[in-house]
Write a structure and sequence with these properties.
This protein has 537 residues and is an all-alpha fold. The protein has 26 helices and two strands. The longest helix is centred in the N-terminal third of the chain and has 27 residues.
C-alpha cells in the first residue's frame, strides 16, 4: 500500500524523525549564538542593502535579475530577505532558519527513502548519515550557504513526490515532482542532475518495467527545467569565469578526478575540513600543483570502484548509489569553474545521499547473509557508533564557524597558503584596530600572491593608520601599478602625499582620481583645497 504524507510520522517513523531532528539540534543548536563571518556573509546579508530592506516588490525583481554573486538563485535571495525582515542583524535568527531547513531535509529524506524502498531502518540510517555528517557543517553553519539547505528541502520533496508518482502514476504526484524540482533549481541550480538521479531510481529500487525510452520521455519536462537553469546560471556566471581562462581542459579533468577521491575520503574519514581548498592551478591563490602520481592513483581508485559496483549486479544499491554520488557532483567538479576552490565540503550536500544509500543498503544486504545473530547485532551496534561518532565530529567542527577570526585562523591552519583567507583575516583585524597583526597577515598573503592589488592597498591603509606614511605610499603605488584604472588607489596616494606636505604630488594624484571618477565629489574637493593652499585660486 502506498504511503501517505502522514506515514513518516507514524511509529516507528515518528520516533525516527524525532531522533533525526534531535541530532541536528544537538549539533547545530550552538549556531544560534554565532556571529556572521566576513567570508561572503557581507555579500549575502550584512552588506547587501537590498537584502537588508527585507521583502518588497523591488526586492522580488532584484532577486531574479541581480548579478551580485556568481550564481542565479532567486529563491535563496528571497529567504535571506525574509530573515532580514524577521531578525534584522541578529545572526542567531539567520542561523536558526538554516538549522530548521536542514532538520526538515533529514526528515524528508527519511520519508522519501522509506517511500521508495519500504525499508524503515535502512532509510533512517541513510538519513542520519546525511544529516549528522561533518561535511554538512559548512552548508548549515554558514549563513551564506543557505542555498544548500533550501534547495535540499525541495530536492527531498522531489524524491518523495516521484516515489508516489512511480507507484500510482498520479498526475498530482507528477506535478508535485515538477514543482519541487523547479523550486529547488530556483534555490540552487546545482540540482540540474536530479532528473538523471530519477532515472537511476527507476532502475532501483522502483524496478520500473517500462522501456528506457519511455522513462526518459516522461522526464523531458524535468530535463527542460534543468537545461533552463543551467543556461541562466551560465549567463550570470560569465563575468566570474575569466580567472580560469588559462586552465586547460586536461588540468580541469585532473583536478576533478582528484577531487572526487578526496570527497570519498572525507565522507568516510572526515578530517582537515575547511571552507577553502585552493585550486592547484592557481598558485597565486595558494594552490599547490597536483603531482602525476596523485592523479594516476586517483584515476585508478575511481576506475576500480566503478568497475566493481557495476559488476555487482546482484547488489544494485552499490551501482545506483555510486552513480548518484558521481552524477550529482558533476556541476561542481570545475569543468565550468567559478571561484578559487579545488573542491568544497558544501558540494557534497546532495551527492552524499548516493554514498549513504550504497553503504547502508549494500552493507545491509551483505550483512543479511551473516547467519550468526550475535555478529549481526554487533554490526548494527558498530554502525550506530559510527553515526554517533560522525555527529560528535560535526558538533566539534561546527564551533569553527563561531566568528570570523576563529573561522579564518582554522582555515589557514588547514590551508596555510590560502592567500584570500589571509586577505580576509587582515581586513577583519584592520576593523578591530589590531594593526600589527593585520600587517603581518597582509605581508604573508602577498608573499603568496604579490599581484593582489587590493591586498597591497589594504596593507597601505594599515601602515597609513600607524603613520608609516612612506611605507604606505609604496604599497599604494604597487596597487596602482597593478590596477591603474582604480580611482581609490590614486586618491589614497593623494591623501598620503598631502599628509607628507608634498602638495604638487598630491594634486597630480587627485587630478588622476578625478579623471577616472569624475562623478565623485570628494576628490574634487580635496583637489580644490590643495590648489587653494598653493594660492592657485
Amino acid at each position: 500500500m502506498e504511503e501517505s504524507v502522514a506515514a513518516p510520522l507514524r511509529r516507528p517513523g515518528a520516533w525516527i524523525a524525532f531522533v533525526l531532528v534531535a541530532g541536528v539540534l544537538a549539533i547545530y543548536g550552538q549556531t544560534l549564538a554565532f556571529d556572521f563571518v566576513v567570508f561572503d556573509d557581507d555579500k549575502y546579508v550584512t552588506g547587501n542593502p537590498t537584502v537588508q530592506r527585507g521583502l518588497s516588490l523591488e526586492g522580488f525583481g532584484w532577486a531574479f535579475d541581480n548579478q551580485a554573486v556568481s550564481a542565479w538563485h532567486p529563491l535563496t535571495w528571497l529567504s535571506h530577505m525574509l530573515d532580514a525582515q524577521l531578525f534584522a542583524d541578529w545572526a542567531g535568527g539567520h542561523h536558526a532558519t538554516s538549522v530548521v531547513l536542514h532538520a526538515l531535509c533529514a526528515v524528508l529524506l527519511f520519508a522519501a527513502l522509506r517511500s521508495l524502498t519500504g525499508a524503515t531502518w535502512r532509510s533512517a540510517a541513510a538519513a542520519a548519515f546525511f544529516a549528522w555528517h561533518p561535511l554538512r557543517v559548512e552548508s548549515v553553519a554558514w549563513v551564506s550557504e543557505r542555498k544548500d539547505v533550501l534547495s535540499g528541502v525541495f530536492a527531498m520533496l522531489t524524491l518523495w513526490c516521484y516515489a508516489r508518482y512511480a507507484r500510482s502514476q498520479s498526475r498530482a504526484a507528477w506535478l508535485g515532482t515538477f514543482l519541487s524540482l523547479a523550486l529547488g533549481l530556483l534555490a540552487k541550480p546545482t540540482l540540474v542532475p536530479l532528473p538523471f538521479a530519477l532515472l537511476l531510481l527507476d532502475f532501483w529500487p522502483l524496478a520500473r518495467r517500462q522501456s528506457f525510452a519511455r522513462l526518459v520521455f516522461e522526464k523531458l519536462p524535468f530535463f527542460a527545467l534543468s537545461g533552463l537553469a543551467s543556461l541562466l546560471t551560465l549567463v550570470f556566471q560569465r563575468r566570474f569565469l575569466t580567472s580560469f581562462a588559462g586552465v586547460s581542459p586536461v588540468q580541469r579533468a585532473a583536478n576533478a578526478v582528484v577531487a572526487v577521491v578526496t570527497y570519498l575520503r572525507k565522507l568516510l574519514w572526515p578530517s582537515s575540513l575547511a571552507p577553502l581548498y585552493p585550486h592547484p592551478n592557481l598558485p597565486a591563490q595558494g594552490g599547490v600543483p597536483l603531482g602525476e602520481a596523485t592523479i594516476l592513483v586517483s584515476a585508478l581508485i575511481l576506475l576500480t570502484i566503478s568497475l566493481a559496483v557495476l559488476r555487482a549486479r546482484r547488489h544494485p544499491p552499490f551501482a545506483v548509489g555510486w552513480l548518484w554520488f558521481l552524477g550529482l557532483l558533476v556541476p561542481t567538479l570545475g569543468f565550468v569553474q567559478v571561484g578559487r576552490q579545488a573542491l568544497a565540503d558544501r558540494y557534497t550536500y546532495l551527492p552524499a545521499i548516493g554514498l549513504a544509500v550504497a553503504l547502508v543498503w549494500g552493507l545491509a544486504e551483505l550483512g543479511a547473509q551473516v547467519r550468526a545473530p550475535r555478529l549481526r547485532r554487533f554490526l548494527c551496534a558498530a554502525a550506530a557508533l559510527v553515526l554517533a561518532g560522525y555527529g560528535l565530529a560535526a558538533h566539534v567542527q561546527t564551533r569553527v564557524w563561531r566568528d570570523s577570526e576563529t573561522l579564518l585562523r582554522h582555515t589557514l591552519a588547514v590551508s596555510p597558503r590560502a592567500s584570500v583567507m589571509r586577505f580576509n583575516l587582515g581586513g577583519w583585524l584592520l576593523t578591530q584596530d589590531r594593526l600589527d597583526e593585520a600587517i603581518q597577515e597582509y605581508r604573508a598573503g602577498l608573499a603568496v600572491d604579490p599581484g593582489n592589488a587590493l591586498m597591497h592597498f589594504d596593507l597601505g591603509r594599515a601602515l597609513h593608520s600607524q603613520r608609516r606614511t612612506a611605507e604606505a605610499i609604496e604599497e599604494y603605488r604597487r596597487a596602482a601599478a597593478i590596477e591603474p584604472r582604480n580611482p581609490r588607489f590614486w586618491y589614497q596616494l593623494g591623501l598620503s602625499y598631502e599628509r607628507e606636505g608634498r602638495l604638487a604630488e598630491a594634486i597630480e594624484h587627485y587630478r588622476r582620481t578625478v579623471e577616472l571618477d569624475p562623478a565623485n565629489e570628494k576628490p574634487r574637493k580635496r583637489l580644490a583645497a590643495a590648489l587653494e593652499r598653493q594660492k592657485r585660486r
